[in-house]
Amino acid sequence: MAAQTAAAAAALAVTLLAMCSAVTSCPPSDRAALLAFKAALHEPHLGIFNSWTGADCCHKWYGVSCDQETRRVADINLRGESEEQIYERTHRTGYMTGYISPAICKLERLSSITIADWKGISGEIPRCITNLPFLRIVDLIGNRISGTIPADIGRLHRLTVLNVADNTISGRIPPSLTNLSSLMHLDLRNNKISGPIPRAFGKLQMLSRALLSGNQISGPVPESLTRIYRLADLDLSRNLISGPIPSSLGKMAVLSTLNLDMNRLSGPIPVSLFSSGISDLNLSRNGLDGKIPDAFGVRSYFTVIDLSYNKLSGPIPKSIASASYVGHLDLSHNHLCGPIPTGSPFDHLEASSFVYNDCLCGKPLNKPC
């Protein structure tokens, strides 16, 4: 009887140990999905996938994190540029080829996907990532990813970061993107994206940074964009954006950086931009005309004002001298005329800030008035 009891106890212990092991390791389905994801990539130098062995993908698999309770894979964080030992040991940044396998979409509890700065990863963004309801971060910067942004990206209501900068993504910004009600950081810089900014862009009420420079985006700056209360950093430079600058941009509560340079904007510069909270203003290389508004005051604090390469005429406004601070000012390559004001900030500016105008005179130009 005692022998039977001991055998039963031993069997129970084995069963409990197996159950405990099953709970503390990742599910076989998640492990299989990660291995399929790995199989589509080739990383020849750092050996970051060397640790992807064993049954438990939650234990010391480089770049993989799991939920502590469910043991489901929650995060994939693979960066080609890092200060971790694996990079310092080889004295090189990462290089990886291949593509992002749709197998990643079988990781149903995935919260973040960071596959950044590998330089050689190509292929498209898997369409199926829009079926991952817990996704909060998609960071694919610095690869060679092509194709379009998934049309139904707007299904990811928890998404806070979408960064696909420095790739070769084409097509339009999908209208559904404006349904990303939690989005705080949008970075589409340096791709081949074309077409207009969606008219309903203003629905992105949590957005604080919108970085869309270096594309082929056309059409006007949508008025709805100026109603995003939290927007602090707007970069639409190096595109094909046309039409006037909305005056409501200067009435945005926290906007501090406004880069609209190298577009096809026309019309006058809104007065509101110079009495706003904007501190970094670049409107260079457009077709802006009229006079520079004489609207500077104590609220005007600018680290940069670049109005070069436009069609601006008339005098340099004297009220610039009443601004709290002006660091870099570039008014070159316009049709300005008259004496350059004296005092701050003009006493620390170089001649290059004023060259190639119609008839400016005074210091720092060697043209007496």
UniProtKB/TrEMBL annotation:
InterPro entries: Leu-rich_rpt (IPR001611), LRR_dom_sf (IPR032675), LRR_N_plant-typ (IPR013210), Plant_LRR-RLKs (IPR050647)
ATP-binding recorded as keyword: yes
Pfam families, per the entry: LRR_1, LRR_8, LRRNT_2
Keyword annotations of the record: ATP-binding, Glycoprotein, Leucine-rich repeat, Nucleotide-binding, Repeat, Signal
Keyword Repeat tagged: yes
Signal peptide: 1-25
Residue span, Leucine-rich repeat-containing N-terminal plant-type domain: 28-67
Protein name: Leucine-rich repeat-containing N-terminal plant-type domain-containing protein
